[in-house]
Design goal:
Radius of gyration: 17 Å
Strand content: 25-35%
CATH superfamily: Fumarylacetoacetase-like, C-terminal domain
Shape: globular
Distance between the termini: 41 Å
Number of helices: 4
Number of strands: 17
Helix content: 10-25%
Length: 229
Amino acid sequence: MTDYAFPPPDQASIGIAGSSKRFPVHRIYCVGRNFAEHAREMGAEPSKGSPVFFMKPSDAVIQNPHIPYPSCTSDFHHEVELVLALGPSLPEHWSAENALQAVYGYAVGLDLTRRDLQAAAKEKRLPWDTAKGFDASAPISDIVPIQEAHLNADTLLSLHVNGIQRQQACLGDMIFSVSDILLALSGLYALQPGDLVFMGTPSGVAALHKGDRFHAELQGIAELHGTII
């Protein structure tokens, strides 16, 4: 038994639909600019070069319906996303043909962003970790195992805030597919069971305020409800 200097924090985990077991979170990878219209609204011209990645800490996940408005921002944005959850069936040698065997299930999540901090960092050509990797910045639904989650190009990803639609797109609008992203990530990192991949957001990102109620949905598969407090 390891003798720690002090008790380690609890393992970050999220629920699994239809199961009493929990999914242990290893790392959270995020894809930037994976929907063309969102790339344009952020001031970038979309291209199918190399995907853009950034990360959040594993304990940024939150399943409490009460989402805290973060400190040090006055421009707090939502980004609804398809989330991949990777399981133990990882390929020994990754390829476009076998990448999907790594997927344990799917969820819907929000990549919450302190947009003003991100803009300031971009202007100075500095990293923007503080804009993305803060506490409770990754609200997520329960994971739906892949056997029960049937995605296709027409599956809708959407977000409503206070009953008004803010974001909606078909998964077929993604520039990089699930296989594309997993293959690219596997070349950069040693992917592990428990990894989550936030697959990028459609256009329509906008501010959230205290008291706002949101409803995120991966059509026919997963839903996420919450309130900003």
